[in-house]
Sequence to fold (426 residues):
Amino acid sequence: MNDQANSVEQRFETAAPAQLSSWNRHDTTWMLGLFGTAIGAGTLFLPINAGLGGFWPLVILALLAFPMTFFAHRGLTRFVLSGREGADITEVVEQHFGIKAGALITLLYFFAIFPILLIYSVGLTNTVASFLEHQLHITPPPRALLSFVLILGLLAVVRCGEQVIVKAMSLMVYPFIVALLFLAVYLIPHWNGGILSTASQVPAPSALLHTLWLAIPVMVFSFNHSPIISAFAVDQKRRYGVHADERSSQILSRAHLLMVVMVLFFVFSCVLTLSPEQLAEAKAQNLSILSYLANHFSNPTIAFAAPLIAFVAISKSFLGHYIGASEGLKGLIVKSGKRPGAKALDRIVAAFMLVVCWIVATLNPSILGMIETIGGPVIAAILFLMPMYAIRKVPAMARYRGQASNVFVTAVGLVAISALIYSLAA
Fold:
């Protein structure tokens, strides 16, 4: 099977362009699409989770943010690129590790991403209902109708195709960046030191390591966009051939630099405004940082803007995660032995997603937070550990062996998984 893949790769390389083209609009669209998938609802809770650990853990996490996210997602991209032309992540796993491993990873991949899609369905419905009731003073329609209209609207974008999804997400990124910048700058006059009050209190090494251990998963998954990486890698290979690794690394590095700079500015602006006690209060109330700031300042501008920002953030992330969830579900259907046509398969997947997301959004169960946490270790294993294992075992990825970043990614993956399991057991 590897020989066959190599021969396909060689034929593809001969047809590939001799030189890499200059940066273009397609690359910018993907850069913003990656940003849009990663920076969503989780970002609105990151200042609370990251700031509670104190000043020094937050500084260390800020320094680790770029290498943690860039090297991990580059590894997963390279893994998908190592497969046959047009093969998504589930097909590449089967190609390298066999049919049974492919089926197992496909199952885990789907159940790691799909619950997050359900959470976004609930969050989107809650955000719009709250906005109608509290900001517009309009009685929201029945929850079943509202959730159905919202999810159907997002799935209408999905039906337009992957390129339209990515373009829609890239367009939605602009107002989101502007909103984050506006809020971060708006808070500057209200900076009162906040977390700086803990700067003089250097924690003991054991306490510092424990805080970082539990905080790393928060940082990792606040920047996670693994659900769209497979589609991203397939598109880069189709467009750039043998230069796909180089160009995809360029796109990833710029996307992650944009993520880290924007999000960390927003995080530090929030934690310099609020005291550690206020951050703890926000966590106890189960509020996003935007909701807490709106209540804290009683400012009509923030109160009106916060749900709009949340709506854009959740919609972006929903679209990005839908690509990964639908890819996993299609893989499960095909591996079950049923092989419907491409259009029929798309319709089956879309109908399933609509019905399940609508039911869950209507029921509004509180258990979804637990499901997201349970999916965390699986995402960490797929994002961090599987590509590093493939580098050691798969001939097509042998050229990436011996890099220091491999050790770093493996270590972060083990830390993230162990911390998540510890949090579940505690």
User: Anything to note?
Assistant: The domain at 22-425 is CATH 1.20.1740.10 (Amino acid/polyamine transporter I). The radius of gyration is 22 Å. The chain has a mean pLDDT of 84. DSSP finds 17 helices and no strands in the chain.
